[in-house]
Specification:
Layout: H1 3-18, H2 36-48, E1 58-61, H3 68-73, E2 79-84, H4 87-90, H5 92-107, E3 116-120, H6 126-136, E4 145-149, H7 153-163, E5 169-173, E6 186-189, E7 198-202
Parallel strand pairs: 1-2, 1-4, 2-3, 4-5
Antiparallel strand pairs: 5-7, 6-7
Bound molecules: S-adenosylmethionine.
S-adenosylmethionine binds next to helix 3 and strand 2.
Length: 205
């Protein structure tokens, strides 16, 4: 992928979604949305160290909301999979994407690769990853990088510790000073991309 076109695209995608943040205050706080410009900085670092790549990385957002993280990640990974328990929230994806594509076309950005797969399901339901596998070919054991924006981070950590492959990574977004710790996962980086917002864990090899 052309470097300057990618940079421009990441900026356009981030600007579009970051001007449409959800639930930052009030009763909808549980539905906060990732700041894509910060996540993009994290991904630049992971890509530069070879930890993720468009040729081989399978990524899963375990509570994907309107799919914005998946849209950004589609440029950085081979498969960008999202799982969302709330169908109403997930349904926003089509509209957002429909608004974004003309902006990318007009401004000279790249359209997202056809590697985004979103599922209405619970990430904690065993059947969900069977469905993911049948539709994408990716099994839970094949996932390289899991993601959550705080939601159920401790339960997802347990699932990763039990079921993911050794060496699988887990990026937890939304922490600043007080980092979570998981008994069965190693802390790889307390501050990915120097954004003060995301920590990276790994299942021991
Ligand atoms: C804080 S939001 C983050 C959305 C998105 N990942 C982002 O960063 O913009 C967490 C989302 O996880 C969803 N969620 C909660 N429990 C879930 C589960 N068991 N499986 C899948 N999604 C879940 C919520 O409905 C919510 O949309």
């Amino acid at each position: 992928m052309n470097r300057s076109a990618l940079d421009k695209t990441v900026r356009l995608v981030s600007e579009y979604f970051d001007s449409r943040k959800v639930g930052c205050v009030g009763a909808k706080g549980f539905r906060k949305t990732t700041d894509l410009s910060k996540l993009a900085a994290c991904m630049e670092e992971l890509a530069s160290t070879g930890l993720i790549s468009p040729e081989r990385t399978t990524f899963v957002d375990l509570g994907c909301g309107d799919g914005r993280v998946n849209l950004l990640m589609s440029y950085f990974v081979r498969l960008s999979i999202g799982i969302e328990i709330d169908g109403e929230i997930l349904s926003e994806y089509a509209r957002r994407r429909g608004e974004l594509i003309p902006i990318l076309d007009r401004e000279g950005g790249l359209r997202p690769p056809e590697n985004i797969f979103l599922f209405r399901a619970s990430s904690l339901d065993e059947k969900t990853f069977e469905q993911v596998r049948s539709e994408t070919g990716a099994s839970l054991e094949g996932v390289d990088l899991f993601y959550t924006y705080i939601t159920l981070h401790d339960l997802f950590a347990e699932k990763i510790a039990l079921q993911a492959k050794p060496g699988a990574y887990y990026l937890v977004y939304g922490f600043s000073r007080v980092l979570p710790r998981y008994d069965a996962l190693d802390l790889v980086s307390p501050d990915v991309g120097a954004q003060g917002i995301a920590a990276l864990f790994r299942k021991p090899v």
